[in-house]
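agent> Task received from the user: take the single chain below, predict its 3D structure, and emit C-alpha cells. No templates, no multimer pairing.
agent> Plan: (1) validate residues, (2) run structure prediction, (3) serialize to C-alpha cells, (4) report one or two observations.
agent> Step 1 OK, no nonstandard residues flagged.
tool_call: predict_structure(input=
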Amino acid sequence: MLRASFSALAVTALRAPSPATLTSLLPARPTPPTPATNRELDGAALIGMTRVGACEVSPDGSKAILATREYDFEAKKFDESLWLVDLARASTLDDAALRAHAHIQPLIKGSASS
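)
tool_result: status=success, residues=114
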C-alpha cells in the first residue's frame, strides 16, 4: 500500500505543469525602457565610460570621497579624479537636483601615471 501511494506521488510530481499554470507563476513581463539614443555599445563607448573606483565615507557619514577614472582619447591615457560627495545635502535634494549632481564637487583631477 505504501509503495503504491509513493509511486503515484512520484508520477504526479514529475508531470510538467500546464502552460496556464506556468504563466500564472511568472511575473508580468516588463516593457524595456525606450533608449535615449540609438548609440551602439562598442569598444570606444566601453573604454570611454567613467569608472567609479574606491569610495571612503567620513566617520560621521556626512561626506564621502569617490575616485573616478576616465579615458582621454587624445592623450591615450586615463585621467583620475577625486570627488567630494555631500551625503547630508544629498538626502535633502529632489531627483532633479541629484541628477544635476548638486551635491558633488570635484577635488582634484590629473593623469594616471603610466
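agent> Step 4: summary for the user.
The CA atoms of residues 49 and 70 lie 7 Å apart.
agent> Done.
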